[in-house]
Amino acid sequence: MKRFFLLIFTLCIAFVANAQDVPYSKYLTYTKEEFKENKFKYDDDTNTWSLRKSSGLNVTLNVLAILADASEEVRPATNDYSILVQFGKEEKAAYVQVVFYNDDTYHKLLTFMKDNGQNLVETSSGKIVKHQAFIGDYALELDMEQRIISRTSSRTADRKAVKNVDESYNKYCFVIRTDVEPWSKYLDKQAAKKAKRDAKGKKKKTVDEMM
Predict the structure, then answer these.
(1) Would you say residue 93 lies in a domain?
(2) 120 vs 32: CA distance, rounded Å
(3) Is 67 domain-assigned?
(4) How many CB atoms lie within 10 A of CB 196?
(5) Which of 102, 135, 166, 211 has the lowest CB atom count within 10 Å?
(6) Buried b vs exposed e over 134-146: b needs ≥16 C-beta within 10 Å?
(7) Any alpha helices (H) in the chain, and if so which ranges?
(8) Tell me, what DSSP letter sits at residue 72?
(9) How many whole angstroms from its chain centre is CA 57?
(10) How many domains does the structure of the chain reveal?
(11) Which structural domain range is residue 158 located in?
(12) Residue 136 per-residue DSSP state
């Protein structure tokens, strides 16, 4: 009997440790001091901490394209990323969202979910492929979206742009959700606006309701 309980205890410890080892989950337990030390910025209105790394060249080219009245996009650098941690009430994290463009990072996360996740589900819609799984109290989601870069090749006499598709790249998004409900002043404002519209009978019907 002792061996049985020891086995169960060991499995529970291993399971908890596994859940704590989920990539990027450390940000769910960061303190304010830790966020500041790691250069995260806090937004009081959205109740989020965020960090963004982007190529200076890409940012410059995007700005120049806007100034030149161009509509082209610039491909993000492989190592560009953004991390956003949404909090709920009582300073508890609701989820962490990581957006990145590195193919190797995507495959590492996908392998981790396949090896450690429970109830792994894969769905696809258009240019988006989504994987969902559970580890402990965490709900994981990994999305891959194909993005198209279109460049302005020339302009006609009346300044209408002629575009040609140049290349595509993948945008990845990894999300870890907890059981905490997201909360912020912004979300409260949006909920209040929706309630006001619904009260006036201006609620927009869903596509299913329109059948």
Answers:
(1) yes
(2) 33
(3) no
(4) 10
(5) 211
(6) bbbebbbbbbbee
(7) 2-20, 32-37, 56-67, 103-116, 185-199
(8) -
(9) 23
(10) 1
(11) 2-54+80-199
(12) T
